[in-house]
Specification:
The complex is a heterodimer. Helix content of chain A is 50%, strand content 20%. By secondary structure, chain A is α+β, with helices and mostly antiparallel strands. Chain A has 3 domains: 54 residues, no CATH class; 68 residues; 107 residues. In chain A, helix 2 crosses helix 4 and helix 3 crosses helix 4. Chain B has 9 helices and no strands. By secondary structure, chain B is mostly helical. In chain B, helix 5 packs antiparallel against helix 6. At the A-B interface, helix 2, helix 3, helix 4 and helix 5 of A face helix 2, helix 3, helix 4, helix 5 and helix 6 of B. Chain A: InterPro entries: Anti-sigma-K/W_factor, RskA_C. Chain A: This is Anti-sigma factor.
């Protein structure tokens, strides 16, 4: 068989793959010794298939390397290096021990520091949250204060009526802009499914006009609500209505009322 | 490094020879194992076993019978198949011809080897499906020519030359 023939036949590939019989293997090896081009071809095939398989191989962890290394080389090797003199041995081991302890301590400290940092970060974000909350509360308080202080606002006291004699509320009414704020801190929380509705009233003839609902009553801490503008209102009333409000006030549920 | 040199080193069981062995062959052998066993942890266990066998039996390796790599490859296949049998897998692998080594690339691209995998997957995907199949069977699964010819419904004589053509294609791609 010529070197050309054996190269072209595909036998060398199977030789590298380990798929030839012992007889065939022998033949290939003889040929490779005789012809350098056969040997070179074998090396090229081997390197190509190693290259291919390496490239598709999943990642091998470093721990895997360490495991195998320990299994094969064990600890004997480490000891045999330092057998010459016993005192250097001790110094070596001593230094190693110090190093290990030091390293351990450092690691422990690092770990501790990391925990502390984590804790601080959590605390920080909690504090930031409460700062934001406080900022909101402050803004709200300032808003309320501004309404109360505004010279253009007329304060209308709304007194408790039959259903709720102890209830009270205040309306801040700006006659120029017709803006109305209701301070409802004197009203009890509305029962589930009910909502307070604010009415602007004209007295002659008595015509109520809805100027809004006190939505999210419980959630509003300052209990100051901005409602719709009330053009030329002469009195304000607050009634308890089914959720969503009513077209005209339910007078039996009139909580507070007051004239401008 | 020349194979003769490496064998000499391995016989001396030096630390350096282990590093050489591991660096040059671990990934290739691991690919073969993983492709058969398809479980990372088990594949790593088998790889350990394979390295122990190579290490302890290097003196039985005979250069006049084949390449060192081929010898290691056979140890790898046998150890993996033993493992599969011990777990009752039988030869079920041989029926899953739809699977092949290329899927490992897709797994890889999700993890660490990203750049490698993208580079090489470009040319591996250029390989004809027939080539992927034939390399899968003969190299990765360790089929005999006979088995491969049955599986691929290809005349026995064609398997060898077809594989040669495919390997040539691969080599030109790698060298490009």
């Amino acid at each position: 068989m010529s070197s050309r023939e054996i190269i072209e036949s595909g036998t060398l590939e199977l030789f590298v793959f380990g798929k030839l019989t012992e007889e065939e293997n022998k033949e290939v090896i003889e040929m490779s010794k005789k012809y350098s081009e056969v040997q070179e071809e074998i090396l090229a095939i081997e390197s190509a298939i190693i290259n291919l398989s390496q490239s598709v191989s999943p990642h091998l962890s470093v721990t895997n390397y360490e495991k195998i290394r320990t299994k094969l080389l064990g600890k004997n090797d480490v000891i045999s290096i330092n057998r010459k003199s016993s005192w250097t041995n001790y110094i070596g081991w001593g230094a190693a021990a110090v190093f290990v302890i030091g390293f351990g301590l450092q690691y422990f400290k690092l770990d501790e520091s990391k925990t502390t940092i984590d804790k601080l970060a959590t605390e920080k974000s909690l504090m930031q949250e409460s700062i934001v909350d406080l900022e909101f509360e402050k803004q709200e308080a300032e808003k309320v204060l501004a309404i109360v202080r505004d010279n253009n606002n007329i304060q209308v006291a709304l007194g408790g009526q039959e259903v709720a004699p102890n209830a009270y509320a205040k309306a801040y009414y700006n006659k120029e802009t017709n803006e109305v704020y209701i301070d409802a801190s004197g009203l009890p929380n509305p029962p589930e499914g009910k909502v307070y509705q604010v009415w602007g009233l004209k007295l002659d003839p008595l015509t109520p006009q809805s100027i809004g609902l006190l939505d999210n009553f419980t959630a509003n801490n300052s209990k100051v609500f901005k409602v719709e503008k009330a053009d030329g209102a002469e009195a304000f009333g607050i009634t308890l209505e089914p959720a969503g409000g009513s077209v005209s006030p339910t007078l039996e549920q009139l909580y507070t009322l007051g004239k401008v | 490094m020349e194979q003769e040199q490496l064998v000499k080193e391995l016989l001396s069981k030096s630390n350096q020879s282990f590093t050489l062995l591991y660096d040059n062959y671990s990934k290739s052998l691991y690919a073969v194992i993983y492709n058969l066993i398809k479980n990372r942890e088990e594949a790593e266990d088998v790889l350990q076993e394979v390295f122990v066998k190579i290490w302890n039996n290097i003196d039985t390796y005979n250069e006049t019978k084949g390449r060192l790599y081929t010898w290691m490859l056979n140890i790898t296949r046998n150890t993996t198949i033993d493992k599969l049998r011990s777990k009752g897998y039988n030869n079920s692998q041989k029926n899953q011809s739809a699977d092949n080594f290329v899927y490992m690339l897709e797994d890889n691209s999700k993890t660490v080897n990203k750049i490698d995998a993208i580079g090489i997957s470009r040319f591996i995907k250029k390989l004809k499906p027939k080539c992927i199949q034939i390399i899968e069977l003969l190299f990765f699964q360790g089929y005999t020519q006979q088995e491969a010819s049955e599986e691929l419904e290809m005349p026995l004589g064609t398997v060898k030359t077809q594989n040669r053509n495919c390997m040539n294609e691969l080599r030109t791609m790698i060298n490009e």
